[in-house]
Amino acid sequence: MLEKYYGISNIKNFPIERLENLLKTAYERELYERWMTIYPYMEMGHVEFVSFEEYKNKAFGNSHNNSSKTKQMSNDEIEKEMMGVVRYYEQKQKVGGKK
User: pTM (2 decimals)?
Assistant: First the structure.
């Protein structure tokens, strides 16, 4: 999703704080798309209604509880991990034939 908005080669040069913000935004969009798939069932009464904000807060709460290790990582460790994500998208781009 990030490569849709930014060239993957440009993302490599972003400061860590910017990458974190981009990933959070991408994750929120993904959550919204998932919430929209269950929205019709909430409207029909098959599933208890949950606002998007509640859904998002619960999802972010779960992800933050599971990522306590990240808070203890150094900037170098975070950068190394993020470069793995960048390499993954580069490979995906090559395999998919996107330019």
Answer: 0.49
